[in-house]
Fold this protein.
Amino acid sequence: MTRLRFDNAFVRELPGDPESGPRLRQVEGALWSAVVPTPVAAPEVLAWSRDMAGRLGLGEADIEAPAFAEVFGGNALWPGMQPFASNYGGHQFGHWAGQLGDGRAISLGEAIGSDGARWELQLKGAGMTPYSRSADGRAVLRSSIREFLCSEAMHHLGIPTTRALCLVGTGEPVLRDMFYDGHPREEPGAIVCRAAPSFLRFGHFELPHARGDVSLLRQLADFCIRRDFPELAGSGDATYAEWFRQVCTRTATMVAHWMRVGFVHGVMNTDNMSILGLTIDYGPYGWIDDYDPDWTPNTTDAHGRRYRFGWQPKIAGWNLVRLAHALSPLFADAAPLQAGLDAYAVEYDAAERRNVAGKLGLRECREEDLALMTDLQALLHDAEVDMTLFFRGLADVDVEAPGLAPLADAFYDDAQRADAAPRFEAWLGRLAVRVREDGMDPRARRAGMHAANPKYVLRNYLAQEAIDQAEQGDLSGVHALQDVMARPCEEQPGREAYARKRPDWARDRAGASMLSCSS
Ligand code: AMP
Ligand code: MG
């Protein structure tokens, strides 16, 4: 029996669909539909997060009890759980897509953690819901491993994100056409239990707005403020204005973190944007190896590359404009919405300056330091240099005698390195002058740079290697990555293999550099 306690505010306080069960349908006037997970053949816990379990007050014995795999595989419910799928819409690749909803996510309930915090627990891949549209409600092992590992890795990098409690194998195959090219194959199925204080997305607000249901929109906004932004008590224009402003600034903070570490979300549709500014929906995401602002891992987006690395700040802004539009019926005039959007720009700018200062090891970022960073990024791009290795190595450059030696390993191509060396040396000279003038204590500077520039990130090929092993029944690679990525900024002697640049074989391999939305 579980020790989890539930307080299911979402289903208690918001209107639900009168019909329950998974029959596909348009759901109007309601924010959720009751639906239970579809049982699976042989649920087995493949991995779990000790940190997340601990926050819920769960320990190893709880996870190992057979009942745990049954519940988190979708075969059983604990007392207090009230499973549902939520109803949202969204703009996909720039176009309004109408009702989407939780097509394969089923929330079990809102658990109250050991510290009193609220953690909605949600199974991803638990079977059909009214929102599954033409799909099967399931998830494959490879994409579940990717979500499980990356959401926890992001948390340990200090980046706002949904969390993952566990990864459960279903013992059932799932049919997937990985590259939508008419070659479906059976893959092992899995379910991730993710956890967040709220899974509300921009798209939850867009759908009632698109349907002209202002009363439902207002109920949802009031609920979101009450439950997810409790410090903003009251209601009326001032509260809505401050709420929207905070959504904007949280989004700015999140995206600036992505840009700091080289994370590319891959599908920044408005249904994948969290109202709390959490990174959500880990699909065809990727990590920058050689610095390229035009790179996207998502083959489904290969043509326009809307969600390329360098466009993420602007796309998040575009998404906030969609949200502002959806919320406009709640405001007497547009000024507070414009003020929120302006706050996005201001906060992003401030966060970018923090990134520049942190990554270059400066006390503060001045105007000319922005140019120093832009110039470096152009060099990194032109000479095909690994983003993570370069910035990590920067802390080892002696500012009294700057040289490229500590950074040699970051280059993918020797000839390009030789060619670009004079330009890099000139740039390092500029940095050294600035650092000496800045006068920061060298030890504090090094520590600050290490905190801003992780050594270990979940490179696409590392995740793919662990997936290949897991598909053969060996989970050790997943567990090893979990462990390494829990301390991404620390030196971890003996684990150098996890901090290497992308090997040649991984350059153009499916999974390691190219991913589709098929998951
Ligand atoms: P995504 O691109 O993963 O954010 O998904 C967009 C929409 O498609 C969401 O409404 C998902 O719930 C839905 N969806 C994605 N994959 C599946 C699936 N296998 N079964 C049902 N719905 C899905
Ligand atoms: Mg999604």
Summary: The CA atoms of residues 158 and 456 lie 13 Å apart. The pocket of adenosine monophosphate (ligand 1) is lined by residues 100-104, 131-132, 135-138, 267, 271-272, 281, 283, 517 (CB under 6 Å).
